[in-house]
Amino acid sequence: MVMSQDNKTDSNANKGVRDRLLDAAEELFCEHGFEGASIRDIAASADCNIASVNYYFGGKEKLYEEVWRRHLIPMRDARIASIENVMSQSEGQPCLEDLLRSFADTFVGPMVEKSARQLGILMAREWIDRRLPANMFFDDVIKPTMSAMHKALVETCPGLDESKVPLVVLSIAGQLVQVAHIKAIFEQGDEADLPMFDLTEAIEHIVKFSAAGIRAYAKDKSE
Question: Which residues lie below 8 Å from residue 182, measured CB to CB, with a gap of 6+?
């Protein structure tokens, strides 16, 4: 359903200037890319003056970064919280499958929700025309998440060679990203021509498959 101009104005009136700029910028960056989305157009779409972009963000580049951060930071925090939650409730005996399952659910969830569509478009554009600071993904998302998962895996599976943990985490993440992509492909096709795809079943397979591999690593070290 297309929102009328009056309804859009009413919706904007209920939001602060900063949030309106972020909403407008995300929509225009998705539609036109970084270069194609001008500050003038962003400000007009947000019902703000041009100076507000510099006031709140210090320029178009920082506005672009903040559009990304409002997706990435909640995703990162949810993943770390899921890890910490499993470890805190384990009563000293954390279960490897519980850890992997909780991590998988929070990892895949945001990637398959309807709200993830714009993030997917942003990612595709960023892959072609890189505009984010080189270390932003690593410093803001990957490093803290891997650090939390590293600590949890070592505690959950004491025999695991710590030098293998980064590869273990990357392997799990790679499987989960692929499952999310496959789900999107299945949703685009004709269901009558495709086999059944159950996301929950796929995640459970990854959990069991990965747990077996992790324990095999740990066993090899102990022998």
Answer: 197, 202
pLDDT tens, residue order, the chain (223 aa): 334 444 444 445 557 999 999 999 999 999 999 999 999 999 999 999 999 999 999 999 999 999 999 999 999 999 999 999 999 987 778 899 999 999 999 998 877 776 677 888 898 899 899 999 989 999 999 999 999 999 999 999 988 999 989 999 999 999 998 988 887 777 766 555 656 678 889 999 999 999 999 999 887 665 5
pTM of this prediction exceeds 0.70: yes
The amino acid at residue 218 is A
Q: Which of 195, 61, 191 lies closest to 126, judged by CA?
A: 61
Cα 179 versus chain centre, distance: 14
Distance CA 169, CA 166 (A): 5
Q: How many CA atoms lie within 13 A of 25 on its CB side?
A: 28
Count the neighbouring beta carbons within 10 Å of the beta carbon of residue 158: 10
